[in-house]
């Protein structure tokens, strides 16, 4: 990931292009619309897990949200997100290098946690993927307030699989609509987007 974000950082410095938006623009719009529809207060604390280039938080800031934190274990990703933030003039976003599977104690008390593809990436780790997924859920429980919301977008997991992964400590609130496709007479989604609520 470091190498990928170093390339994106160089591209941004050369051209001003912030790079890849995971799952495309509509995935960001989907999350922001849900937050607006639910009337999530603009000062709610939001954590973007595996923030990458930070573009999602920039869009949230443009929508009026003021208490935004992005973490990524790649220092290059955080450098890139800082540059994107500066270019967009968004001073109310905090970025920090942080490994979600080995969190520092001061990260806690968030009302909303967002994941676009980070759980997918962790799940693909060839070393102890099951243990890493369990640690992810433990980390999520430690950063998200009881009754807080967890919005996850995944291209690797079905709704049923995600319900199983997050059954301890979370309940499903709703599934967000994502593009559908038809193959061999069956209809499916290439992306799953779910909203969970942390149990009390």
TrEMBL record:
InterPro entries: Efm4/METTL10, Methyltranfer_dom, SAM-dependent_MTases_sf. It catalyses: L-lysyl-[protein] + 3 S-adenosyl-L-methionine = N(6),N(6),N(6)-trimethyl-L-lysyl-[protein] + 3 S-adenosyl-L-homocysteine + 3 H(+). One of its GO terms (cellular component) is cytoplasm. GO terms for biological process: methylation. Keywords: Cytoplasm, Methyltransferase, Nucleus, S-adenosyl-L-methionine, Transferase. The keyword Cytoplasm applies. HAMAP family: Methyltr_EFM4. This is Methyltransferase-like 10. It comes from Struthio camelus australis.
């Amino acid at each position: 990931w470091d190498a990928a974000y170093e390339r994106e950082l160089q591209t941004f410095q050369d051209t001003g292009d912030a790079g890849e938006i995971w799952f495309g623009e509509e995935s960001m719009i989907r999350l922001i619309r849900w937050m607006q529809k639910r009337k999530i207060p603009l000062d709610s604390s939001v954590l973007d897990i595996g923030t990458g280039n930070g573009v999602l938080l920039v869009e949230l800031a443009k929508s009026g949200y003021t208490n935004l934190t992005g973490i990524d274990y790649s220092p290059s990703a955080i450098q890139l997100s800082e540059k994107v933030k500066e270019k967009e003039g968004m001073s109310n976003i905090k970025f920090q290098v942080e490994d979600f599977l080995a969190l520092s104690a001061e990260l806690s008390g968030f009302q909303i946690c967002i994941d676009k593809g980070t759980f997918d990436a962790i799940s693909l780790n060839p070393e102890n993927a099951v243990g890493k997924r369990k640690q992810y859920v433990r980390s999520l429980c430690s950063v998200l307030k009881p009754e807080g919301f967890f919005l996850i977008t995944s291209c690797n997991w079905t709704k049923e699989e995600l319900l199983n992964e997050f059954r301890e400590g979370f309940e499903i609130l709703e599934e967000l609509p994502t593009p559908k496709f038809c193959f061999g007479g069956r209809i499916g989604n290439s992306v799953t987007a779910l909203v969970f609520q942390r149990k009390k």
